[in-house]
Design a protein that fits this description.
Length: 235
């Protein structure tokens, strides 16, 4: 399994960057996980969006799904309709804007297999319905936290993951219990407690550099890495 990081900032991109978006490749097929601002252009540099097997959305906040709106024009021209999976409780206004002519929007089932990847999800703690997503193929597991603050279900869900791709929107001095995201330190604590093999920090704030985020996480999880658009993660 290969993960191309298309975008990794939140809630808005850096100049020339993109918010949440990850292209998952396995056995010659592709799944897009999140499709935030700036993701569509980067996706086009790697593959034809019309060839995607599915789109997985952690949730429907704009920084995770906004580029689906411009993708719809492309899919209309191609005459293609793609399956889009969302949290079943979601009632976001953005969901109503996803044209049924090009998107088959449906709730996550308990478990599914797409492109030879087993996919399961877990509710996490965010102001809107959001799912952590676990993808497993050929004995390897990638877990994406989606957007979440501390959450009792997250560590068991991420247990023994080969890669934990974790929300790290704050430094710990900025973090509060009522905020909608983890800090870099708390992401590292989750990775440690889940016995993850590798930790990648994402949903990064544009106000902090990657090295600062990595240094905080490394106090708990020494090999923590903050991702950048263009990074490739191999499992």
């Amino acid at each position: 399994m290969k993960v191309h990081v298309l975008g990794c900032h939140g809630p808005y991109p850096m100049a020339g960057g993109a918010t949440s978006g990850y292209l998952i490749s396995q056995s010659g097929r592709h799944i897009l996980m999140d499709c935030g601002s700036g993701v569509m252009g980067r996706l086009l540099s790697l593959t034809d969006p019309a060839s995607l097997s599915a789109i997985l959305l952690s949730h429907l906040h704009f920084d995770h799904a906004a580029d689906l709106l411009v993708m719809s024009y492309y899919l209309q021209q191609k005459g293609v309709k793609l399956p889009v999976f969302v949290p079943p409780e979601d009632e976001s206004p953005l969901r109503q804007l996803l044209s049924p002519a090009v998107f088959q929007v449906q709730p996550y089932p308990e478990e599914m297999e797409i492109a030879s990847i087993r996919i399961t999800t877990c509710p996490v703690r965010h102001p809107v319905p959001c799912r952590a997503i676990r993808l497993e193929a050929e004995g390897k597991a990638l877990v994406f936290t989606g957007d979440t603050n501390t959450c009792d279900a997250l560590v068991p869900f991420a247990q023994d993951a080969d890669v934990l791709l974790a929300d790290a929107a704050f430094l710990d001095r900025e973090w509060k219990e009522q905020l909608p995201h983890l800090s870099a330190l708390k992401a590292a604590q989750a990775a440690r407690d889940a016995r993850a093999k590798r930790l990648y920090l994402t949903h990064l704030p544009v106000t902090h550099d990657r090295k600062t985020m990595e240094a905080e996480a490394a106090a708990v999880f020494p090999d923590a890495k903050a991702v950048s658009p263009g990074d490739v993660i191999l499992l």
